[in-house]
Amino acid sequence: AAGSGGGAAGPCVPVLLPLLLLFLPGLAAGPAGMLQPRDTPSRERRELGGLWSFRADLSPGRDAGFAQRWYRRPLRQSGPVIDMPVPASFNDITQDPSLENYIGWVWYEKEVLLPLRWLQGDPAPRVVLRFGSAHYYSIVWVNGVQVVEHEGGHLPFEADISSVVQGSPGTLCRITVALNNTLTPHTLPPGSIQYMTDKSRYPKNYFVQDTRFDFFNYAGIHRPVVLYTTPAAYIDDITVTTTSSDSVAMVQYQVSVVGSTANSLSLSLRDQEGKVVATGDGPVGELKVLNPNLWWPYLMHENPGYLYSLEVKMQAQVGGALLEDVYTLPVGIRTVHVTSTQFLINGRPFYFHGVNKHEDADIRGKGLDWPLIVKDFNLLRWLGANSFRTSHYPYAEEIMDLCDTYGIVVIDESPGVGIKLPESFGNKSLQHHLAVMEELIRRDKNRPSVVMWSVANEPASELPPAAHYFKTVIAHTKALDPSRPVTFVTDANYALDHGAPYVDVICVNSYFSWYHDPGHLEVIPLQLTAQFENWYKTYQKPIIQSEYGADSVPGLHSDPPLMFSEEYQKAMLREYHSVFDKKRKEYVIGELIWNFADFMTNQGTTRVLGNKKGIFTRQRQPKAAAFVLRDRYWKIANESSCLPPVITSHSLFL
Q1: For the chain, how long is the longest CA-to-CA vector?
Q2: 506, part of any domain
Q3: Looking at residue 393, what is its pLDDT?
Q4: Same domain assignment for residues 379 and 324
Q5: pLDDT digits (tens, 9 = 90+) for 438-496
Q6: Do the beta carbons of residue 499 and residue 469 sit within 8 Å?
Q7: Which residues are catalytically annotated?
Q8: For residues 147 and 139, is the Cβ–Cβ distance under 8 A?
Q9: Segments of the chain with pLDDT less than 50
Q10: I want to staple 305 with a disulfide (CB 3.0 to 4.6 A). Which of 221, 289, 333, 407 is the partner?
Q11: What is the CATH number of the domain that holds 558?
Q12: What's the domain range around 100?
């Protein structure tokens, strides 16, 4: 659904967008690795969470920060600043309504003292500054020196700042970030700035941010900022794939090293008891594991989410010094295969009974919040959910870590949501989409929980340019990672969808008796059955109902069920479930409710403090529908499980 974010009197067309686009060529994406920072015998990490100095650029062109070079000195010296927590969205932190819907450049700053051991030595260690994500476009300076630019609000970026901090007097490190949340037809997700030129109705230079997606465009430094070190010669990237049979598994690996040719490179694979089960050496090879413990999804095995630890150790001569770098990567041994009617994990049919989510909560917006993350995983397991889709953007690495650990299966989705305008299918948008898929796969390629890539959600795939666009994006994704199937999520007519021929699994969103025939629950069996049969007859590919649901206002009751009541949400789910139960015996391989929890959207006449399609409230309290879904998911788990004794919610969770 279309939405808009508000803006106060602001920049005219010639100022804001050229200012944003001025910085687009300097992307940080490239061939380098993006290993998650970890403490090891050779590496240190330091999180920079807490309070940062903050200022929104309220100048008419949003460009005062660049004109006055705010990055050249402490931010407090160029004007007033306020405290801003990191990680968090800035929108809901203050009582200032202009910041809630602010569009343009904001500035963050943090001053930290570095340990002397990070600045000395021959050779001195490599010091890296890493952002888990910042929405949307970022420019970063250290001690007044620009070190990195990055486009995109949901994936990590980093910069080697060794030369800057080791060449500066003292140990002070001043980090300055300029962040712009403007969305254009060529960003991902796309958007557009609409200027209101009727002076009888709007102030001078009034504009709003228009988007074609139904969630609030929160902005800020949303995930942890980390300083970490490596030796001057270091392990840059590790790629792992696995195959298995009944009694043996093979772990194929590829390791890249930067800074010097490694004198030696050794690998040790350890089980959860610390026992070495396989060893190897050299940058490319495979490890043979006898009688492996496979990575199984939650509720599919009595020990789900089994992870080995792959320790990679490198020694290299740099000058007169022998350097050693050590990195440990969690590894899950599992296989994925798709047939015309099934989705197989480790050779066994897997049925997705799960949810769609959002990174969204009161006050912190999309900011990473550990209590909320742990609560959500506890609710997922209480619910009997075995999977979720990262709707509609990549989620934090910390969330993905727990998916690996708990055995929660993930459809990993790019920020390709709201691709509706014809100009968003052009070459400029396409090239950026390809770069985003490279960044996403580079980050998540080794995760056993990730079983499928989703390149987009509800694009205008009925438009003719969508054929070339999605053929190219999907082919590129498969070339980067041949080990996983690829999909995108559609709400187009089966006969008109130009992207569907290229996916491995059909993912369909539909809201019968809500957006179509509102209030008429009786049409669901006929329309949903026809939907499945038409898609399968056309493509002969397995189908996931990737979204379905209804808004319900907690505490609003009606019998007979009326829209927005908890009873209507329950009734709609049951109508859908009756069709799912027939078709999952054939070619339907999954169902993902929309949504796990209520979430914030732009203001509009159909949204009362956000989208209310959650089975939990935004505060994570259950609505009546949560219990309907819980009963269903545990029943499905019992039917499909071969565990002795029969799984119950009490034996595995409560």
Answers
A1: 82
A2: yes
A3: 97
A4: no
A5: 999 999 999 999 999 999 999 999 999 999 999 999 999 999 999 999 999 999 999 99
A6: yes
A7: 458
A8: no
A9: 1-30, 644-654
A10: 407
A11: 3.20.20.80
A12: 44-181+217-230
